[in-house]
Amino acid sequence: MKKIVILISGRGSNMEAVVRACAREGWPARICVIISNRPDAAGLGFAAANGIETKVVDHRQFDGRESFDAALEREIDRFEPDLVVLAGFMRVLTDAFVEKYAGRMLNIHPSLLPCFPGLRTHQQALDAGVRVHGASVHFVTPTLDHGPIVAQGAVPVIAGDDAAALAARVLKVEHDIYPRAVRWFIEGRLSIEGERVALAPSEPQWLFADIAGEGV
Ligand code: NHR
Ligand code: GAR
User: How far apart are CA 191 and CA 148, in angstroms?
Assistant: First the structure.
């Protein structure tokens, strides 16, 4: 059994998608704990209701990123996880923390990287006038939102979209690609080759949203 620790900050819908897929598809994996940096994260309720241990490490209780990350590390390492999954986790992590989990920490970022790293990605996409947007699952490296890409999902930008409408369309592909990518990791099928992530045996590491009837 592989052990997974998931970090969240809020709603936790990506965490929920991973938890549900793990149970439904019978992965050889266990979600050990859901850790949030915010005590009020809605996702903690889903975790507790599903019998998963929860833990809050409130970043406001620490005087800097190093001490917060050290506390986070202690909570994570209690479970000796094979994989750390960032699911809407909103705190930038120190280099030392990231190096420690190198090659075994994944994030989902709501843009087609390397476009639009950082925050407010959907507004960034609208402001740039791109016609295709999406989400990327990547290995976490010290440089924010720059790690090797495991999978991407693309959605169209539709006339009349605001950031909320676009975010909702992207979120659907997130819920599809993130569980798949986590499963590939658990199955030992991913290898990092420089900037690229190979999947063996191969299958599509991309997804194009089915938006029939949603507009133009
Ligand atoms: N840490 C490292 N070192 N590298 C990455 O690639 C990381 C990371 C930590 C989080 C997720 C990321 C995203 O998917 C992630 C990737 C938070 C911020 C941010 O600026 C930026 C990117 C991501 C997550 N956070 C503010 C901060 O001061 C706080 C914002 C808030 O609390 O709402 O940490 O986009
Ligand atoms: C998701 O869209 C995720 O990609 C994004 O926040 C949302 C979290 O939703 N992540 C980031 O912006 C990381 N900075 P969720 O809590 O319902 O999974």
Answer: 10
